[in-house]
Amino acid sequence: MLRTLEINPEIAPRASVILLHGLGASGHDFSDIAEQLDLPKELGVRFVFPHAPIRPVQYAGNTKMRAWFDLVNLEYHAKEDEIGMRKSEEMIAELIAQELARDIPSEKIILAGFSQGGAMALQCGLRYPKKLAGILVLSAWLPLVHTILAERSIANQQTPILMLHGTEDSVLPLNWAVESCNSLKEMGYPVTLSFYPMQHTVCPEEIVAISVWLRKLLS
């Protein structure tokens, strides 16, 4: 089981947001978002911020860091670390099982992620066998596109997907998100893509949009 940072509501949890961090970060990097989203207390939202395993990353000269999978480079069509992605997918599914064991129904679980974590939110969410509340993708892309049609879960075919990306992102260019969104739409997924004038980060306007989206899904 992955190590996690967890923030519980004042009342018994009724919903969960599992938020996966980006390359080289940790679960602590997004812990402030729980307060910033200012969600109604009656929603009983529990936040789970897992820490990815530490592994050598080729893109960083094989430096060991927290990463959900290996990266050779930051080219959109570069060879993907399918083995690493699938191992992380299994670990993320275990996190969801942990929330189910807390009597939180899968329909009240949001799978979210930033950058590499956002890619994993899609990788796991589209294939997860039980209905999820939604998939939130921040400054990320759709991985292993060629395997989705054969592996996708019918349970999450109509699960709302919200993609948010910066127009000035110099790490993962906007076209990554646009192409990913188009691929998802072609496969029949209800996906929304919104842009913000920002780099590879999260801005206040984006936080507001996420809060509105979560309230709608979990109310």
Would you mind describing this structure in some detail?
There is one protein chain. By secondary structure, the protein is α/β, with parallel strands linked by helices. The protein has one domain (4-218): Alpha/Beta hydrolase fold, catalytic domain (Rossmann fold), CATH 3.40.50. It is 30% helix and 21% strand. It is built from 6 helices and 9 strands, in the order E-E-H-E-E-E-H-E-H-E-H-E-H-E-H. It starts with a strand and ends with a helix. The mean pLDDT is 96.
Largest sheet: 7 strands, mixed
CATH class type: Alpha Beta
Question: Which second-level CATH architecture applies?
Answer: 3-Layer(aba) Sandwich
What class, by secondary structure content? alpha/beta
Question: Looking at this structure, what is the CATH superfamily?
Answer: Alpha/Beta hydrolase fold, catalytic domain
Counting structural domains, the number is: 1
Low-confidence parts: none
* Overall form: globular
Number of strands: 9
Rg over alpha carbons: 16 Å
Rounded mean pLDDT score = 96
What's the CATH topology name? Rossmann fold
**Which percent band covers the strand fraction?**
15-25%
Instruction: For the record, give the distance between the C-alpha atoms at the N and C termini, rounded to a whole number.
Output: 30 Å
Helix content: 25-40%
Write out the strand line-up for the largest beta sheet, numbering strands in chain order.
1-3-2-6-7-8-9
SSE string, helices as H and strands as E: EEHEEEHEHEHEHEH
Number of helices: 6
